[in-house]
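Budget justification, computational time. The allocation requested in the original proposal was used primarily to generate structure tokens for proteins on the priority list. As evidence of use, we reproduce two of the resulting records. The first is shown immediately below.
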Amino acid sequence: MEADKIDALLGQPKGVDFDQYGGYVTVDPNYGRALFYYFVESPHNSSDKPLVLWLNGAANVIFLESPIGVGFSYSNTSSDYKLNGDERTAEDSYTFLINWLERFPHYKTREFFQAGESYTGHCATARRDNSPAGTNARPP
């Protein structure tokens, strides 16, 4: 968690009142697939706030770039890019969330919501079906 903490961003005013994190979470170590995220904790009582996974770009919010090949998310195996699709994107997003929660375990018991825009609404359904939070269960 602390390894992903961002002290300041270029152009960001000094002394912001929130913690921010960014980095890569591996979703397939065999092929070297990793998704990039940017996470901002709520500046007020973050321990009482739910967690929102914003797909494609108030509460604690994780911005996840998916599928691989979009933005900073990548694979070390070039043939992976030809295999992108809704199912792979949903699987990678689910694996990302599980692995991300290992870095930020204090979010495992929070309410969880997912949101997105454009075509992500289609993929979010597959993600919800895979998501423990989508079945009223808590991520491990």
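The second record produced under the same allocation is shown here.
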Amino acid sequence: MRYTFDTSVQYLKGVGPKIAELFGKLGVKNIEDLLYLVPRDYVPTRNIKDIKVGERVYIIARVLSTSVEPSSKGDMFVVKVTDGTGNLDIRFFKYSPRARHRFRWNKWVGFEGEIKLWMNKPEMMHPSVDFNPPDFPYPYLPIYPLTLGLTQSMVRRATLSALRELEEELSEEILPEEIVEKENFLPRHKAFWYLHYPPDMEYVREASRRLSFEELFYLQLLLLYRKQTYRRKGIAFPKGSRFSRQFLELLQAENPGFKLTKAQVRVLWEIFRDMESPYAMNRLLQGDVGSGKTIVATFAILKAIEAGYQAAFMAPTEILAEQHYISLKPWFEKLNIPIALLIGSVRPKDKKRIHEEIAEGKIKCVVGTHALIEEKVKFKKLGFVVIDEQHRFGVMQRVRLRSKGRRPDFLVMTATPIPRTLTLTIYGDLDVSIIDEMPPGRKPIITKWYKAHERESAYEFLRAQLDKGAQAYVVFPLVEESEKVELRAATSMFEELQKGMLAGYSLGLIHGRLPGAEKERIMHEFRDGKLQALVATTVIEVGIDVPNATVILIEHAERFGLAQLHQLRGRVCRSTKQAYCLLISSPHISEEAKERLSWLEKETDGFKIAEKDLELRGPGEILGVRQHGKMNTRLVSLLTRQFKDERLIFKAINDTLDRIRMYISNIMREDPLLTSPQYYILQRTLSQRYTPSEFLLDSG
């Protein structure tokens, strides 16, 4: 049988269907998965003469005799062994008669455990026993993560079998020779061998360095190759824009003295430059809540419409889509541009009319949700697409919207600041623009952390703001109370607050389990000022825009991540009024939680918060689990083998990504589609590692 990376582990010597099922619980399905099952530690193989008390070791020794010896703790089973350099007693307090018979005289057995002193003599107590020890004395043996029923011996036999069976495939170099030399990498087959069976621990670091580079290299190659395929001929919009000038005049009429911030102007020129080029634009627009992303997107939409094209603006929720529509409609009406809202709750009769007018080209801009990508929606001439909160949409949704036009320009926006590492690893196929400046007159939010015993003070402050006419959010981590965790929940606290701390104020309750129509009704009431405070879960995290809501109180704030708290806090930074965020923590919280809350109290810059959040969460989400689950686990395991200090991982990743992108840019300059013989291996490896949908090739 010929083995490949895709071969199921069950076909490896000594595995079979039952053990393969156990491997499956570790996420190991095929030989490639097995080779990337990174050991969590290593145990040195020692001769008996070299063992030291207190050291955990693995020895391979021959059975000399077995006996049962009485002791104060009960009978002990003792196995006397030798390896030719010395003798050792192995003691078991618990043993079965059946197990005794497996220690036959003269049989070679592996023992793994800690060396302890017994009656002033080094001995091994209760070791793990390997009746099929390796046939070669490897200096170090791997210690793998396990699941019930799977032993170290089973996994070691399987990895040894895999390394031997795939020797030819592993010997094939999949990185350009120039990179291997410049980076001073081990050959690929040695990197895999040393990852599992290193001659010295320094080789583990070198093996991990090589293999983690490979993972990042091919992810970046995918993203930059994808970016290259996007650079197919698109729409070259004319220079200048009469609509844009008229829109600026409208904004200045509404707000005398209005000026775009320097950051908005810079980003707008980046977008216009892309739109005026003959290539399809694919740009990510990052900006903190309230930084003016929607205004920038509107300028771009108007430029597209003026050139005779239609625009689509897709948001993840009906509430957010409706808010964007409410913002855009007055401006578009003054410019005599037909605009429509297409969401699930639109009446069938109106929906049919909107579909027809989109197809006829009468509607120039349509704002909507997933309803925009339904089969029935056909654009006459779609030329520009805006996707808000891009991370809330799946890959295929973006592709389906792209297919509605002939390579339309794409602008994806997020108010969730993304750390540089994640920008490169998740959004590396997009050009990035950042609005890193807030409009003038916007006051920094005041954040205060209240300890559990100060809870009444927080609500006292909240009541004072409500009495002044402000509106507020009161956020809880759970919808309903749980027996597992002692946390206040939104539903029970809604009733309690109505009778207690917020009695006499008009309250609403909103959470993810409510039907869509009910959520919409409550949000409308809050937006219209009929409700003074909204008791909620994190359903309000994205896209709720109520300028009069200037206070957010977050209960059990330690239960939320730093970035999530910042997003929630952004719900009350919607106007020039002073906004407040009140964080209430539980009585006993961890040091890390204290650091998070203390940090949020002092910092308002979303990008600094995003970097700190990633640092606090550790390297577990370097790639974003949703986007690259298996690869993320693989890479984190490899990086952890290189660095004891997690903080060094992010610097190493960023440095490595910079070098990788330089290497790939040089390759792409020479051969953009990787068709030449020297880059054939890159193209082939890409197609083996990623599915066609991950390539996201332009459907236009």
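A brief technical remark on that second record: The radius of gyration is 31 Å.
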